[in-house]
Amino acid sequence: MPPCCSPTTSAVTAAAASPGASRSGGLLRRSRPAPAAVNCKKIDSLRSINGAPPCIPVSNRSLLTPVTLPVFRDPNMRNDTRLRIFSGTANPSLSQEIASYLGLELGKITIKRFADGEIYVQLQESVRGCDVFLVQPSCPPANENLMELLIMIDACRRASAKNITAVIPYFGYARADRKSQGRESIAAKLVANMITEAGANRVLVCDLHSSQAMGYFDIPVDHVYGQPVILDYLASKTICSDDLVVVSPDVGGVARARAFAKKLSDAPLAIVDKRRQGHNVAEASILVLCYLLKQCSQPNGCI
């Protein structure tokens, strides 16, 4: 019987039945009176929790029933969905359009820069156990936007987000995917390692410079193509395929341009032979027109 329950008559009876001393085996032994149980006034002073009466421990045997504790919720945690979309400073309008299309609101986040140029990021709402999407392209200034993305990923990871997806429509350093000369770095691989080590679980990119750059990541990569959007736009303009010519800016983009031309009813294909004289300097020396592709595939076809 817990001490906070009502007193019983058995304890009083046991104390009154003993005269105070008894002899057993020639030894004098005093009997101690059993302590009387008292009422616990703290239970009576308990107020209702969350509009319901508290659960008071009751004992019929020797086990106590558990006490019902109030449930506390984080006021910053939204109950509608576990999906969160946060925007960096690179392209907030794109982030807003994505959130509006999904019927969501952009997550509250504070991003500012100190006097020495350091970036400060703080999430203004809880993301514990949430699927977080960070929209931040690494467009110019590439280094600023990339570092901002890394700090955003780290903030979400330390806030116990369940999954973190970096949405990078323009992936900076994607052109540095190989060594064209000796003693060069492969910056695309370095950036992929930085994003992975920061804590991202998945990356979503659009139209990488080369598809093999997806292999630089040790996490899943979703490569989204902009071709369907352009095709829908051209279809809305009702342009005849005879008035179209698909041009590849260099030899490396021939496969992509050929696939694009095939979707446009086998539109003519042109290839530019681009020669680079230096960084950010390109010269188009030869324009190769493949206008008679269908005729070339026939036995008697020729150019």
TrEMBL record:
**In this protein, which residues make up the domain named Ribose-phosphate pyrophosphokinase N-terminal?**
83-199
Q: Does the keyword Metal-binding apply?
A: yes
Output the Gene Ontology terms for molecular function.
ATP binding; kinase activity; magnesium ion binding; ribose phosphate diphosphokinase activity
Q: Which InterPro entries match?
A: PRib_PP_synth_CS (IPR000842), Pribosyltran_N (IPR029099), PRTase-like (IPR029057), PRTase_dom (IPR000836), Rib-P_diPkinase (IPR005946)
Which EC number(s) are documented for this chain? 2.7.6.1
Key words of the record: ATP-binding, Kinase, Magnesium, Metal-binding, Nucleotide biosynthesis, Nucleotide-binding, Transferase
> What are the GO BP annotations of this UniProt entry?
nucleotide biosynthetic process; ribonucleoside monophosphate biosynthetic process
PROSITE patterns, per the entry: PRPP_SYNTHASE
Q: Which reaction does it catalyse?
A: D-ribose 5-phosphate + ATP = 5-phospho-alpha-D-ribose 1-diphosphate + AMP + H(+)
NCBIfam families this protein is in? PRK01259.1, ribP_PPkin
Entry's family note: Belongs to the ribose-phosphate pyrophosphokinase family.
Identify this protein by name. ribose-phosphate diphosphokinase
What is the species of this protein?
A: Zea mays (Maize)
